[in-house]
Specification:
Blueprint: H1 3-25, E1 30-31, E2 36-37, E3 40-46, H2 53-69, E4 74-78, H3 80-89, H4 93-101, E5 108-113, E6 116-119, E7 133-143, E8 152-161, H5 164-179, H6 182-189, E9 192-193, E10 203-204, H7 206-225, E11 229-230, E12 236-238, H8 239-245, H9 247-250, E13 256-257, E14 263-265, H10 270-277, E15 289-298, E16 314-324, H11 329-346, E17 352-357, H12 367-384, E18 389-391, E19 401-407, E20 413-422, H13 424-429, E21 432-434, E22 440-442, E23 444-453, H14 454-465, E24 478-482, H15 488-500, E25 505-508, H16 514-523, E26 528-532, H17 534-539, E27 541-546, E28 553-556, H18 557-567
Parallel strand pairs: 11-15, 17-18, 24-25, 24-26
Antiparallel strand pairs: 1-3, 2-3, 3-8, 4-5, 5-6, 7-8, 9-10, 12-14, 13-14, 15-16, 16-23, 17-19, 19-20, 20-23, 21-22, 26-27, 27-28
């Protein structure tokens, strides 16, 4: 058994131990579902009371007793009627509903530990005593089955590890992650906010939108330099196109559809890009066509899944589609991978892993088409020399995909970039080109993104840098602080000079004490402060202070400006 599988079993054990503890402490509560997740587990409970931090302490203590008692995990197979009767008799209606959703040909398995019985496929370790290190983390609300029309349940999150040292390290990691929470930092830096009147959508403040535009301009230049043409497509599209593409059947529940109409707000850009491709007769000589759009999309994500910038309903992607021949798939994949790695490195991410996601259970197209698409993508991956991990069944409904996963400054993984090989959508939408033989052939469509959603990627950047952006990315690069109002004119002279050289600079001429100003702008993560008083004005110098340092260096204004420009106020390709 490998470490990953063993750790997953430990966490599965801990979830059942927690469910037993909660049921013993609060007998009227109903137990819903409790899977393992990355770094831990959770369990959902139906209850009229809201769990508190004090409750978690009590639950942890009871869990320790269950672990100490070292109850055996006993697996049993029950017939369907027996299982339904049992869980009905103890008032566990959610378990009965789960049983109803299990295919008739599958066994109904339960696990017992002590007096507690739970519906479960397993596996588990031999006994509860195998759990050595765990911690309950937080409580949240969650709709049953993720459906906002269903009851709201109480979800308790926990984590479990092989030993106490691993648990201690993880809890330290959580503390660091909390300090880097992009919502907290965004408030300090005045970047954006989200409110109930526009659920899952972002109100970008001036500084946040400066950061957004810097990132967009950076990507736009990369695309232009790599042979992409930029387009713009409609936000509202008739359902007829979504039916042709297959999204109406496979993705409709995530789409916003206008009342009393057949019009939907687009959840993705690909069908619209095919319309631009189809607007002209295309020859093999025209291919590849690399079509990019900073496309705004809307998806009806459940309210419980929304999380700051990381999960929103309205977002903009650095989306692009490459229309090519089958023979061009490998070359285009190689080019894309090179561009993606360059972008990630320049944005501060040097550790990138790859997942290969093959056909999902719910998909469009014939198996032979999927065979061809998966074979083509695997050949491209091998040609690119990419190490990858298989991610079974997680492809898009129209094709297999590569998922590019970044590792941030504190070791967290973020799936951002994607590349998908699609033979199906061009066929459904009639995207064809005239080949050398004079015949029409379906074009191949490569769906690709590097950042993914701008909103989410900016959230990742904020947390990766803890708000302390490289100079070229910082919304405000420099603030000039005055010690006395007598030097305001000198401060404005410096401010105007730097603005003419495209420095994002501000002058703080307020009457506050200088130590207060320094603290204020340090909290706002301003990379460089220039501090000036009477002495600096008379000598035409500035005192330079960098974020995170308590030292100041007095330099002639011209020298300080030269150093600033050399540090790179703009990204230099």
């Amino acid at each position: 058994m490998n470490d990953e599988v063993g750790l997953d079993i430990i966490r599965h054990d801990a979830a059942h131990i927690m469910a037993q503890a909660v049921k013993e402490l609060f007998p009227t509560i109903q137990v819903a579902i409790g899977p393992t997740i990355q770094d831990g587990f959770y369990y959902d409970f139906a209850t009229d009371r809201a769990f508190t931090t004090d409750d978690l302490t009590v639950i942890e203590a009871r869990m320790q007793e269950i672990i100490k008692n070292d109850y055996k995990f006993i697996r049993e197979i029950w017939n369907r009627e027996q299982a339904i009767d049992f869980f009905n008799n103890i008032g566990e209606k959610y378990k009965v509903e789960i049983i109803a959703s299990i295919p008739l040909e599958e066994d109904i398995t339960v696990y017992k530990q002590g007096n507690f019985v739970d519906l479960c496929r397993g596996p588990h370790s031999p006994s509860t005593g195998k759990v050595k290190a765990f911690k309950l983390i937080k409580v949240a609300g969650a709709y049953w089955r993720g459906d906002s029309k269903r009851p709201m349940l109480q979800r308790i999150y926990g984590t479990a590890w092989k030993n106490k040292d691993e648990l201690k390290n993880y809890l330290k990691h959580l503390e660091e992650a909390e300090k880097r929470d992009h919502r907290k930092i965004a408030k300090e830096m005045d970047l954006f906010h989200i409110q109930e009147e526009a659920v899952g959508q972002v109100f970008w403040h001036e500084k946040g939108y400066i950061l957004y535009n810097i990132l967009e301009s950076y990507i736009r230049k990369k695309l232009k330099d790599n042979g992409y043409s930029e387009v713009k497509t409609p936000l509202l599209v008739n359902k007829e196109l979504w039916e042709k593409s297959g999204h109406w059947d496979k993705f409709r529940e995530n789409m916003f559809i206008l009342d009393n109409s057949n019009i939907a707000i687009k959840p993705m850009n690909c069908p619209c890009h095919v319309q631009i491709f189809n607007s002209h007769t295309r020859s093999y000589r025209d291919l590849p066509i690399r079509m990019a759009e900073f496309g705004t999309c809307y998806r009806n994500e459940s309210s419980g899944s929304l999380h700051g910038l990381m999960r929103v309903r309205g977002f903009t992607q650095d989306d692009a589609h490459i229309f090519c021949t089958e023979e061009q798939i490998i070359t285009e994949t190689l080019n894309f991978c090179d561009l993606l790695k360059q972008v990630y490195s320049e944005l501060g991410f040097d550790q990138v892993s790859v997942k290969f996601s093959d056909r999902p259970n719910v998909r469009a197209g014939r198996d032979e088409i999927w065979d061809k698409a998966e074979k083509a993508l695997l050949e491209a991956v091998k040609a690119a020399g990419l190490d990858y991990k298989l991610n079974p069944g997680e492809g898009a409904f129209y094709g297999p995909k590569l998922e590019f996963v970044l590792k941030d400054a504190i070791g967290r993984n973020w799936q951002c970039g994607t590349l998908q090989v699609d033979f199906i959508l061009p066929e459904r939408l009639g995207a064809m080109y005239i080949s050398k033989d004079g015949q029409k052939h379906n074009v191949v469509m490569l769906h690709r993104a590097i950042l993914g959603a701008f909103e989410r990627f900016i959230g990742i950047l904020i947390e990766h840098y803890a708000g302390k952006f490289p100079l070229w990315l910082a919304p405000t690069q420099l603030v000039i602080l005055t010690i006395t109002n007598e030097v305001d004119q000198y401060a404005l002279e410096l401010n105007n000079f730097l603005k003419k050289h495209d420095v994002r600079v501000k002058a703080d001429l307020t009457n506050e004490k200088i130590n207060y100003k320094i603290r204020l702008h340090s909290l706002c993560k301003i990379p460089i402060l220039w501090i000036i008083g009477k002495n600096e004005r008379e000598n035409r110098t500035v005192s330079v202070r960098y974020l995170g340092s308590t030292k100041q260096e007095s330099l002639p204004f011209e020298k300080a400006a030269e150093l600033l420009f050399n540090q790179g106020v703009k990204f230099a390709n």
